[in-house]
Amino acid sequence: MNIAERPINAQTRPYLIAEMSGNHNQSLERALRIVDAAAAAGADAIKLQTYTADTMTLDVRAPGFVIEDPNSLWAGRQLYDLYREAHTPWDWHAPIMAHAKSLGLHCFSTPFDETAVDFLESLDVPAYKIASFECTDLPLIRKVAATGKPMIISTGMATLAEIDETVRTARQAGCNDLVLLKCTSTYPATPQNTNLRSIPLMAQAFACAVGLSDHTMGCGAAIAAVAFGAVLIEKHFTISRAEGGVDSTFSLEPAEFAQLRTETERAWQALGTASFGVSDAEQASVRYRRSLYIVEDLEAGAILTPANLRAIRPGYGLPPKHMTELLGLPLARAVTRGTPASWDLIRR
């Protein structure tokens, strides 16, 4: 996949998305500061969410429209009120995107209905993200795919059959650039429920790049995901968790995101290839392997024993595996302490 000519694949460092979500706390000034902080922390993209409370749900308090899970960060909240608090006003999108572009950041969004797609197309976004909860909304998938823009699709809660249906739908509707994201749709998510071993299986099953939409705390899961082949990491981002925000609890702060940038790149660099033996970088270190040395001054004819022949560093003598062959043999000539053992020292 390419986003605005930036390749996203196994040959480049992981692409990092800073998800603003509702952490702007209904302040455009704060939203712009989040963009500044994301750019300074090393993000490749800042991502928005494009919806209104009315495009997401109904303003009712009937069963199902209030979050009843006592373990939820938003327990007891009416869905309509939560989305009204968290949404990014549509007239903010253009200034946020312009500011991001001025800082070298990609800026795109997650549309939650077809009107959001039409609006985002008017802003010429470079890509689209589909949220896990909309992964099975096939009409929305078709609408986004028909734009021809790259698609990033989160797969939290989706079965293999559902992912397959979504991928087929996207490709049939015109999507040529696709990244699937492993995701656990709990907020925050626990490492125990992250199941990163799914990443290479998804890549193989759907013949596309795979990344991680990560709701765990810290960056450990993201770094591990890179080891399993993740080419893209998405993390919620805020200036300060202490300042609150609907998603602040599981969002990274700038210093943490900067660490994510550093450590995911290190993890990617460390993957290398399947390789054994002395690498080019290790050539200078070979001399410090253990090898066999004469450790006493000895006369010609002296017998080699464990007292005068030892395996020590450096590595200019015979390998230690020859110790038992040498013990008990006589020297052909006198040697001084610190002479590397070699076959030409032995009397034949």
SSE order and pairing:
Blueprint: E1 2-3, E2 6-7, E3 15-19, H1 28-41, E4 45-50, H2 53-56, H3 79-86, H4 93-102, E5 106-111, H5 114-122, E6 128-130, H6 138-145, E7 151-154, H7 160-172, E8 178-183, H8 198-206, E9 209-214, H9 220-227, E10 232-236, H10 254-271, E11 291-294, E12 309-312, H11 323-326, E13 339-340
Parallel strand pairs: 3-4, 3-10, 4-5, 6-7, 7-8, 8-9, 9-10
Antiparallel strand pairs: 1-2, 11-12, 11-13
Helix pairs in contact: 1-4, 1-10, 6-7, 9-10
Please characterize this protein's 3D structure.
- This protein is α/β, with parallel strands linked by helices.
- It folds into two domains: 227 residues, Aldolase class I (TIM Barrel); 66 residues, Type Iii Antifreeze Protein Isoform Hplc 12 (Alpha-Beta Complex), CATH 3.90.1210.
- 30% of the residues lie in helices and 16% in strands.
- It is built from eleven helices and 13 strands.
- The strands form three sheets. An eight-stranded parallel sheet has the order 5-4-3-10-9-8-7-6. A three-stranded antiparallel sheet has the order 12-11-13, with no helix packed on it. Strands 1-2 form a two-stranded antiparallel ribbon.
- β8, α8 and β9 form a beta-alpha-beta unit.
- α1 runs parallel beside α10, α6 runs parallel beside α7 and α9 packs parallel to α10.
- The longest helix is centred in the C-terminal third of the chain and has 18 residues.
- It is elongated.
- It starts with a strand and ends in an 8-residue tail after the last strand.
